[in-house]
Amino acid sequence: MPKFVFLWTDIALWLMVAGALAYVWHVRRSPNLRATWARVARDTPAMCSAVILVAFSVVGLLDSVHYRPLLPPAPGAAADAPPVYAPAVRSALDGLLAGTVLTRPEKTYSEPLAAHQFTKETMLVDDKPVRDFPRLRGAALHLTDPEKERGGDIAMRLGWGLAAGLAVALAGAVLLFACLTRATGSASHAAEELLAGRADIPWRAMTITFALLCLTVGALAGLSTGYHALGTDRIGNDVLWQALKSIRTALVIGSLTTLAMLPPAIIFGIAAGYFKGKVDDAIQYLYTTITSIPGVLLVAACALMMQVYIDNHSDLFDTSAARADLRLFLLCMILGLTGWAGLCRLLRAETLKLRELEYVQAARAFGVSHWRIMTRHLLPNVAHLVLITVVLEFSGLVLYEAVLSYLGIGVDPSMNSFGSMIDGARLEMSRDPMIWWNLMTAFLFMLALVLAANLFADAVRDAFDPRTRRYKPSRLARLGFLGRRPEAMLAADGRASKTGEAP
């Protein structure tokens, strides 16, 4: 039985998952929130992006279950000897990839799907030194003549991978069809919703996105059974393996930093707008001072102080993974505590408007305490701004981590991240021949994650912000709303918000 290791960021991620599940339960009990999120569910780009984000989240959560493997007993050890665990910390994702080509390092660079090393070495052939490209140590070992067999073998593995991905996609489509049939009570109606795209939720687009995702994963998995599908880096590590491990770092930076930013932004923003006067002046002076300092310099100073503390207290960490994880956790706290000024300004402006409304004035006239007014009447009515900011800040923080790691003040060098991959590839593009696959992989993975997050964030903003709410004529035409009065459209879109309630 392995020994499970609970890192700071692991605990934070799983607590956020529990919080998300609690929020889903709250949405199901609230008609207004349920109607608002239904508008998000009707947005085709947002739901296709949600499929991509779920796939990234699954990889990140698998990489957030850490343990130390149990070592076999030493020869001659007593029967009652305590168990001995490996010093290296592994994750559930490492366990799933164990024994594959992804975990077999090479000596140095190798091109995608290559059988030989990218650089030449001096080898002894018939007791004579020969300068040539050596065979790889962990890939294409099953080939006796790579020049003749490699093309056909790659095509065969690619075909098997695509077939497996297509099988998983078909299984998912069949499961979705069964669920729709059970929900609608008619197989023909379910087929019409799924194939013709006439459902309120874009099931057809989501199914196509899931199928393309399965085909991509299947192709990479099939090729990775015998080759480094995306090549290796300078020290021989598989680039695809590094990209998969970097997903967790991006998710931690994007989500945990945003959560660290919320408490000071909400407390100071609502307090400044509600109390005004000296309280407002003090809070404005505080966040104006913070924003006047260049963000990169402020984060760099805090990160360097954090690194000095970690270096001077190395005895507090039993493994290198715990040390790197604490640096990542503190980096998220630093980014959150230095980046709350923008949301604070927004909440202050909204609170200045809300405090003058009748229901707040009535609550003050009846002697309701300031704390209860802020938590009961003001906070729910600015919650949509908080949610919009959370989803919009995520992608920006993922990109910001790449910049910080490129500057050398980001995550620990032993931890995989997209910024570290880009930093390692900055000198590779100037080589001749050029080494392009490391930077390309980091670019494609970051593009998929950030683009999906941005598209989903746009839909959330449109749904929760009444000033940008919009209706799609094609969707309304299928539902039979064209030509009807606006009151009927509002009634079908969800109950209108009552005065003083959140949308």
TrEMBL record:
<feature type="transmembrane region" description="Helical">
    <location>
        <begin position="435"/>
        <end position="457"/>
    </location>
</feature>
<dbReference type="InterPro" id="IPR050366">
    <property type="entry name" value="BP-dependent_transpt_permease"/>
</dbReference>
<dbReference type="GO" id="GO:0015833">
    <property type="term" value="P:peptide transport"/>
</dbReference>
<dbReference type="GO" id="GO:0055085">
    <property type="term" value="P:transmembrane transport"/>
</dbReference>
<feature type="transmembrane region" description="Helical">
    <location>
        <begin position="382"/>
        <end position="409"/>
    </location>
</feature>
<protein>
    <recommendedName>
        <fullName>ABC transmembrane type-1 domain-containing protein</fullName>
    </recommendedName>
</protein>
<keyword id="KW-0472">Membrane</keyword>
<keyword id="KW-1133">Transmembrane helix</keyword>
<dbReference type="InterPro" id="IPR000515">
    <property type="entry name" value="MetI-like"/>
</dbReference>
<feature type="transmembrane region" description="Helical">
    <location>
        <begin position="326"/>
        <end position="347"/>
    </location>
</feature>
<feature type="transmembrane region" description="Helical">
    <location>
        <begin position="250"/>
        <end position="273"/>
    </location>
</feature>
<feature type="transmembrane region" description="Helical">
    <location>
        <begin position="6"/>
        <end position="25"/>
    </location>
</feature>
<keyword id="KW-0812">Transmembrane</keyword>
<comment type="similarity">
    <text>Belongs to the binding-protein-dependent transport system permease family.</text>
</comment>
<keyword id="KW-0653">Protein transport</keyword>
<feature type="transmembrane region" description="Helical">
    <location>
        <begin position="46"/>
        <end position="67"/>
    </location>
</feature>
<dbReference type="Pfam" id="PF00528">
    <property type="entry name" value="BPD_transp_1"/>
</dbReference>
<keyword id="KW-1003">Cell membrane</keyword>
<dbReference type="InterPro" id="IPR035906">
    <property type="entry name" value="MetI-like_sf"/>
</dbReference>
<feature type="transmembrane region" description="Helical">
    <location>
        <begin position="201"/>
        <end position="230"/>
    </location>
</feature>
<keyword id="KW-0571">Peptide transport</keyword>
<feature type="transmembrane region" description="Helical">
    <location>
        <begin position="158"/>
        <end position="180"/>
    </location>
</feature>
<dbReference type="GO" id="GO:0005886">
    <property type="term" value="C:plasma membrane"/>
</dbReference>
<dbReference type="GO" id="GO:0015031">
    <property type="term" value="P:protein transport"/>
</dbReference>
<feature type="domain" description="ABC transmembrane type-1">
    <location>
        <begin position="247"/>
        <end position="457"/>
    </location>
</feature>
<keyword id="KW-0813">Transport</keyword>
<feature type="transmembrane region" description="Helical">
    <location>
        <begin position="285"/>
        <end position="306"/>
    </location>
</feature>
